[in-house]
Task: structure prediction
Amino acid sequence: MIKLIAAVVFALSAWLAWGAGSLHQKDPAHYTTSPMLALGAIALISLLVLFFGKSGSKSKSKARS
Result:
């Protein structure tokens, strides 16, 4: 379940970071890079959780034993 949430968070934050970067390229005087960098960091963290996070089914099977 956690990996599914991480995948959704990654997709959403990467899409929003791309949009923020696009706005910055169009009008750098009004749009800073801060939102793009913050959303990119969230996307990176969720990608790390997606690839290196523990699976929920393994922890449940260990709890039953």
